[in-house]
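Need a sequence for this fold. Nothing fancy.
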């Protein structure tokens, strides 16, 4: 994806530091959806979409939030509009191939893939984002104006860093923009662009969600925080003894151990998208059937939208989290779990690397994945 640059050099010299343009990054990027199919997604109320339309020369646009009617695109102008469909990877799983190309970055940072279809003059206007953005030109040509934050003149940007870039991209070219980089892209021709978005939670998001989860845990605790055996001398007073008890209670609730925070972070960072509610199936294969299928050469693959992460524990063990839930396994299965999370697929050869106890636990994990739908046999998906 990064041509001869390499992931290590990119992360060290460009990631969250300065923009980068890679010509011919992906010679033949996959285009699974045409303009008509993309327009069809924009009519679906379950899929977020947006149309920007107007007069690009005058920089006068209006925004139309989806969904739109099926007849909307029958009367669109020949120039100066763009359709963007967000989270396409969540609804068209084949776009996982696009995400895979960026796995030199941590899985937990991945947000979504958006696809834009443009006619000449199509644009989303002047923008900046709090995320790391990769724009992959799939077809057509785009003229870009990129305005770097002043503080980005560091790393590989060095003395050659420019406050403003003006460039043109064609099929297979990639533009990387760090957070808060201003950009303005205008299509020269009809074309399609992918936007692959990565972001980390903000401190406010972390604190808000952790506090909500912590409060939910304490809902069933009916312990009285403040104990007083004496009548109030002054009902309007907030005595020091009362304040001290309340302060102590808050500090106790707000001071989790490292292990508690690590486990909460793993749950939080692997929670699936709220729109992807899953229900368990009653028709999942048994553990014996799974072993037999793997022995026969069948392969299991992780659903593209499943979120996996593993962490080391205090006793140097490994704990795998899938879609917000820990998956316990004995120490003998740790290597298998780490390899599974990395490859996002599983074969009989992988199972053979675990001892009997570890293999049993791994098969139970696979059964759980099949039951909840975040795991499937590859031949059933392509068949």
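Here you go.
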């Amino acid at each position: 994806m990064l041509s001869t640059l390499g992931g290590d050099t990119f992360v060290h010299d460009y990631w969250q530091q300065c923009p980068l343009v890679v010509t011919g990054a992906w010679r033949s990027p996959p285009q699974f959806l045409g303009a008509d199919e993309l327009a069809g997604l924009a009519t679906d109320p379950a899929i977020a979409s947006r149309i920007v339309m107007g007069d690009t020369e005058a920089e006068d646009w209006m925004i139309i939030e989806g969904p739109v009617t099926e007849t909307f695109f029958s009367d669109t102008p020949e120039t100066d509009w763009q359709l963007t469909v967000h989270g396409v990877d969540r609804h068209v799983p084949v776009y996982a191939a696009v995400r895979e190309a960026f796995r030199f970055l941590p899985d937990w940072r991945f947000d979504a893939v958006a696809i834009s279809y443009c006619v000449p003059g199509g644009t989303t206007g002047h923008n900046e984002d709090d995320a790391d953005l990769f724009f992959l030109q799939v077809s057509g040509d785009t003229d870009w104006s990129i305005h770097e934050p002043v503080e980005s003149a560091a790393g590989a940007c060095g003395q050659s860093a420019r406050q403003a870039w003006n460039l043109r991209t064609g099929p297979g070219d990639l533009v990387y923009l760090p957070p808060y980089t201003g950009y303005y892209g205008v299509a020269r021709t009809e074309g399609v662009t992918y936007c692959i978005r990565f972001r980390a939670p903000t401190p406010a998001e972390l604190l808000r969600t952790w506090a909500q989860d912590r409060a939910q845990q304490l809902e069933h605790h009916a312990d009285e925080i403040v104990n007083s055996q004496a009548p109030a001398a002054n009902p309007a007073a907030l005595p020091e003894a009362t304040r001290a008890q309340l302060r102590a209670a808050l500090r106790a609730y707000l001071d989790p151990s490292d292990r508690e925070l690590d486990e909460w972070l793993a749950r939080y960072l692997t929670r699936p998208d709220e729109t992807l509610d899953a229900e368990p199936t009653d028709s999942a294969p048994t553990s014996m059937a799974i072993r037999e299928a793997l022995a026969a050469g069948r392969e299991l693959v992780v659903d593209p939208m499943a979120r996996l992460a593993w962490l080391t524990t205090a006793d140097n063990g490994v704990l795998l989290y899938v879609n917000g839930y820990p998956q316990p396994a004995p120490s003998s299965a740790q290597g298998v779990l780490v390899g599974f999370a990395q490859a996002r697929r599983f074969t009989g050869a992988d199972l053979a690397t675990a001892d009997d106890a570890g293999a049993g636990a791994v098969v139970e994990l696979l059964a759980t994945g099949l039951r909840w739908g975040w795991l499937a046999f590859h031949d059933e998906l392509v068949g």
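For context: Residues 287-382 form a domain with the Malonyl-Coenzyme A Acyl Carrier Protein; domain 2 fold (CATH 3.40.366.30).
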